[in-house]
Write a structure and sequence with these properties.
Elements: H1 13-49, H2 52-87, H3 89-122, H4 132-161, H5 166-169, H6 172-176, H7 181-207, H8 211-241, H9 245-249, H10 251-255, H11 259-281, H12 289-312, E1 317-319, E2 323-324, H13 333-339, H14 358-369, H15 385-388, H16 394-400, H17 404-407, H18 418-437
Antiparallel strand pairs: 1-2
Helix pairs in contact: 1-2, 1-4, 1-7, 1-8, 1-12, 2-3, 3-4, 4-7, 7-8, 7-12, 8-11, 11-12, 14-18, 16-18
Length: 439
């Protein structure tokens, strides 16, 4: 309530954060972590076999990893900070108070990662002979630093979903060493390797021309894939068991699929990835193109699914049992119901609801308590008011709003007075009616 609100309109505030996060995670997991591990593994094999062609391929990979991570990866990382800060300032403010030093450390680790990546790429031709071991060690250090960024950020993300006893102790270590941190970190680690293999496999057909080199690279991929997929499944199961009970019940709901569809798609997809790994382990260069492309696309969709599920199963919270998704503290809801939300909002132009400013007050309330997840119109039909409130009367909306958290447990309770409830209902009804009349 202490910050101005920003409405990205048709696109939707929640959608914008989600898109930025998914793109960043794809780049970070597939390229910065998974890609780096595979790149260094290929260089090790090339040095051991004294294969100049294989080493040239590893160097070519390092060029693209450098370009992608320092451009698209860095930009989407900043994009996450920008979108979350302007859309959910209360949540980011609270997380900064808890994890200030963790984020500072992560920044140092990221800078170290970039320095190591630059060193690794630009010393490739000069560090030969006795210095080759130093180059390989630099590659290993790069992989470790890439992984450390995941370890630290996962601690923050995991605490949002299950902060352990932090709500009682307010201790940094209680929040960071939360029950989901280790399984979530392991799941992301093995998912990154799986994603790296899946994305790089189709590219081998174009970038590795010699059949023997092609087979050697595929064997490296296969060894990693055979280990990463089972470990990803085990750590994913462990992660699921550490979630709060309500969050566990929302996993399938968060995907928008039925239980059957969810089970079949994930089981078939993971099985085909495992089949690809077995074929690669055998050094087969003639596996079906469609299998390579499917595993690449499925792996990207899998990490997208994971991010969507992780974001949605927290609901109605953004920090579990502490702050609701709209930035209202759980402990302050009753206060706002008695004293009003508008009077507590620093940047609200309206402080009290009157007959003259009822619609303006409703708009302020919608921006404060709804736009983190909802918009009046937009592409995501399950979140837009023109679909959710279509055909509802103003009175029906006013009756529903105070009870919405009991009818739909994924929604936070409305924090405001009865007059503010009526103002919000009036605004939503007016906007939905206008859009319905002018589609």
């Amino acid at each position: 309530m202490q910050f101005p609100t920003i409405d990205f309109g048709w696109l939707g505030n929640g959608n914008l954060i989600g898109m930025m996060a998914v793109i960043h995670v794809m780049i970070n997991h597939a390229v910065a972590i998974g890609g780096s591990i595979l790149m260094v593994s290929i260089e090790f094999a090339a040095v051991r076999k004294e294969n100049v062609r294989l080493e040239a391929y590893a160097k070519r990979l390092s060029k693209w990893i450098l370009i992608i991570t320092t451009t698209a990866g860095a930009m989407t990382g900043v994009g996450i900070w920008f979108t979350t800060t302007v859309i959910l300032p209360n949540a980011i403010g609270s997380l900064l108070r808890i994890f200030h030093w963790a984020w500072f450390t992560e920044w140092l680790v990221f800078v170290s990662e970039v320095v190591l990546l630059l060193t690794y790429y630009y010393t490739w031709d000069s560090w030969k002979g006795d210095k080759k071991k130093l180059h390989l060690r630099t590659g290993v250090a790069l992989c470790v630093m890439s992984w450390f960024t995941l370890v630290i950020i996962t601690g923050v993300l995991a605490a949002q979903l299950n902060p352990g006893n932090w709500v009682q102790t307010l201790s940094f270590w209680s929040a960071f060493l939360n029950p989901t941190w280790v399984p979530s970190t392991l799941f992301r680690t093995f998912a990154a390797i799986t994603l790296g293999v899946a994305v790089l496999t189709p590219l081998n057909r174009w970038f590795v021309k010699h059949p023997l080199d092609h087979a050697a690279v595929l064997r490296i991929y296969g060894k990693w894939l055979i280990v990463s997929v089972p470990c990803m499944l085990l750590s994913g199961w462990w992660y699921l068991r550490t979630l709060p009970d309500q969050a566990q019940k929302l996993v399938v709901w968060a995907t928008g699929m039925s239980d059957f569809t969810f089970g079949v798609i994930n089981a078939v997809g993971l099985l085909l990835i495992l089949v690809l790994g077995i074929m690669q382990l055998d050094g087969r260069t003639k596996h079906p193109v469609i299998l390579s492309l499917f595993t690449a696309v499925f792996s990207l969709l899998l990490i997208t699914e994971f991010e969507i599920v992780r974001e949605n199963i927290r609901k109605p919270y953004v920090i579990y049992n502490y702050m609701y998704a709209n930035g209202v503290l759980k402990s302050e809801v009753e206060k706002f119901k008695k004293e009003g939300a508008l009077s507590q909002a620093t940047f609200s132009k309206v402080k009290n609801v009157t007959a003259e400013n009822k619609l303006e007050a409703g708009e302020e309330l919608f921006r404060m308590q709804c736009i983190a997840c909802h918009s009046i119109d937009g592409p995501r039909k399950s979140r837009v008011m023109t679909e959710r409130a279509k055909g509802w009367s103003e009175e029906a909306l006013a009756d529903f709003i105070p009870q919405m958290h009991t009818v739909r447990p994924v929604m936070p309770p409305f924090a405001g007075t009865d007059e503010e409830v009526k103002a919000l209902a009036a605004y939503i009804h007016k906007m939905v009616s206008e859009r319905s009349d002018n589609p």
